[in-house]
Each structure stands twice: as C-alpha cells, then as structure tokens.
Amino acid sequence: MAATSATEIPKSPYSVLFSIPGTKAFCASGALARLPMSMMSLGIILALNHLYDNWTIAGVMSAAYVLSTAAVTPLYARLFDRFGQRKVGSVVLVVQIIAMLGFAFAALVRVPIPLLFALAVVMGLTQFSFGALVRTRWTYVLDRTGNGSLLNTAYALESAIDEIVFIFGPILAAFLAASVHPVSQLFVPTIACAIGGTVFFALRDTQPPVVREITVVSASSDDADVRLAVDGNTGNNGGANSVQQDKQQDKLTVAQLKSNDNRKKRNVLTYAGVIPLLMVFIVFNMSFTAFDTSMTAVMKALHLDSLLGVQLAMLAVGSCIGALVFGTRELKGSRWRHMITFLAIITVGFFIIHMCQGNLIMMGVFEILTGLTVSSVFASGNLVMKETVPEESLTEGLAWVSTAGTIGASFGSMTTGIMLDHFSPDISLMLPWIFVLASIPFALIGWAVTRRSVSLHS
User: Fold this and answer.
1) Among 122, 104, 99, which Cα is nearest to 51's?
2) Residue 392 belongs to some domain of the structure
3) What global pTM score does this model have?
4) How would residue 2 be classed by pLDDT, with cut points 50, 70 and 90?
5) Where is the Major facilitator superfamily (MFS) profile domain positioned along the sequence (predicted)?
6) In angstroms, rounded to a whole number, what is the distance separating the alpha carbons of residues 307 and 293?
7) Can you list the alpha helix ranges (DSSP code H) found in 34-125?
C-alpha cells in the first residue's frame, strides 16, 4: 500500500494569534477605545483654530490636554498593575467619558478660553493608555497558552492597529470639522471610547491576574518545630553533619527569598536604559504633531481643508504596512540597533517630504515610504521595555513609553503652533526631521547603558 504524505501549510503568525480564545474581542474593543488618541489632540487644534483663528491658542491648549494625560498615565498604569484592569478601568472610564463630553459641549457653546483650558486639563487627567493594557493582555495570554514566541508579532500587530487608528482618525476629524461642525470631531472619539472601553473591561477571561509580591519570614532557631527536627536528626549517625548542611541550605534559601520576594518594588525608571528610551520617544513623537500641525497649515493655505485627513493618513498607511511586515519577521541583534536604524530612515524621509513641499502627490508617496519604519520604532521600544522591567511592572513600563510619546506630542504641537504664528508653514515643516534626528543620540546612549549593565551582571 502506498502511503501519501500531505504537507501541512504553515499558518500565518497572525492567524495563530487570533485562534487563541478571547484575543479577537480584546484586540478589537481596545482598538475602538483608542480612537481618541488620534482625534482629540487634532480635534482641539481644528476646533480652536476655527473658533478663534489663532494657532498659538490651539497648539497650547492641545499641549495642555496631552501634558495632563502624560502626567497621570503612569499613575493609572500602576493602579492597573496593583488592583487589576477591570476593577480600576470600570471606574475611571466613566469619569473619562463625563470629562470628554463636558469639554466637547463647552467648546460647542464657546465658553471663555480660561474655562476651556481648565476643562482640557481635567479631560487629560482622566486619560489612560489602552495600548498598554492591550499589550499586557497579549503578554499574559501568549505566556499562558505557550505561544510566547509570538509576542513580537502581537506587539507589531498592536503597532499596526495604532497606525490604522491614526489613518482613520485624522480623516474623520478633518471631514467632521469641515463638513459637519467644527466641534463635531470631539464627540465621535468620546462615543467610540465609551463603547470600546465598556466591552474591553467586561472581558474577564483574558484579564491578567494581579501579580503580588509574597513576604516569606524564616523560622527562628528557637521555634518548637525547628528544635524537634534538629533533635530528631541528631539521634542518627552523622546526624550532626546532616543538620549542619540543612542549616546552610536553609540560610541560602532565606537569603534568596529576602533578595527576591521580600524586597520593596523597584521603580520602573531606575532600570538601565529606561530613561534614555523615554527620551527617545519624547523627542521622536514631537515630529508627528509637528507634522500634523504643519500639514494642517499647508492645506489651509492651499484651501484644501477637506483633503487634510487624507494627506495626514498617508504616513499612517505606510506605518501600518510596515508594522504588519515587521510582525512576521524576527530581526537578529539588538533591538536598540534596530531602533536607531529605523530612526535614521525616518529622518531622511521627513527631510525629503519637506523638500517636496508644494507637490502633494510626491509628498504623499514619500509619506507612505517614510511611514514603513514608524511603527517598527514603537514596536522595538515596547519590546525593549518588556525585556527590561519585571512582569509585575509591565503595564507601568509600557505606559511610560506611551506617556513619553504624549509628552513629546504636546511639545510638538505647542512648538509648531508658536512657529506658525511667526513663520510660514515651509519653516515649520522642517521641524519633523529635526526632531527625529535629535532623538538618535538618546537611542545611542540607551544602547550603551544597556550593554554596560548586561556586561556588569553577566
């Protein structure tokens, strides 16, 4: 009898990810809940510039919102790590939606600028990083199901979803501001966050358990059970030596427990390479809001406001494609080296985009090409953080990466708004490549610090 052997078609790593029960639900709901990150900051700029015709006010208010978000994101992350995602999120989400609706209605009725600033700050103080929560769930689910090798794919997928959000968010915001009402783009992300967040926190099966440290106290030498064990062993031949060996083993075990489980939780920022990594994302993310704000001014000067969203989305389209490709590849070598290479490519890309100003088609083409490595920078940064901090601090560590990005975004929008009120859009469009170039030295420092730390502990 002839035996036939069928060759099994290898599964795509993405199909393996979504074959795990519960992953589709938390991935989709988390994506929907992230819509505000691509719409609120730009929505504030569009609304305020239309209502008051002032780029500085628009940029500074957007920066105030983003800085407020950055200030509290690590705090929320620590609460999520300590008490669990559902317990904290179900409460904070309600407060967040109320604050977002309050700001949108206040802008709609054109309250005084100082009050609107205060409401923007309050709204920012209610924001937390859904991206960090989703990535923490991926880490837990893949480890639980024995698919830890797919973590790179999962993180790349989330970077692609971030970019998809940034593809449709600006398009939707620009369309709503130009075609419906200058403030309507503030209500849509609020509704999306409410629906997506409610579904996300209702998913119990994929929620990571709360990791707690356990304090172990060794028994004293005069404990009754210890004396009984010692007396029983000394009655045997060679018992004294056995007891002495047991005592030495006990001392070693207690020392290990005291050095590992009984220590105070270490601050995430004290791990080698974390501070330089965060500086990379602060400076790097300044480029994106600088680009968005500058392109908004360019399109407005050309009287092509309705096409603004499409023009801004080109960068995100390229980044989404790059993220999906990055997720199917396991790059060799240091993730720091990968990040530096990607940053150098983006610097060149933004420089070419600036040189192509005036030719929207060529700008769009190079936006897509430049975007191919954008999400790879974010995925590499999140993986660096995952490899650096312990499991019980993972959400906080990932949230710090997100926080660094939001701080950079606030500085970028504020700086560009001021530049636009004093110079032309041509000058402000230089800022993106300058900011990315300035982030590379911090990545080099982080790589050097990490290598030195590894060599010292090896």
Assistant:
1) 104
2) yes
3) 0.65
4) very low
5) 273-458
6) 14
7) 36-52, 55-83, 85-108, 113-125
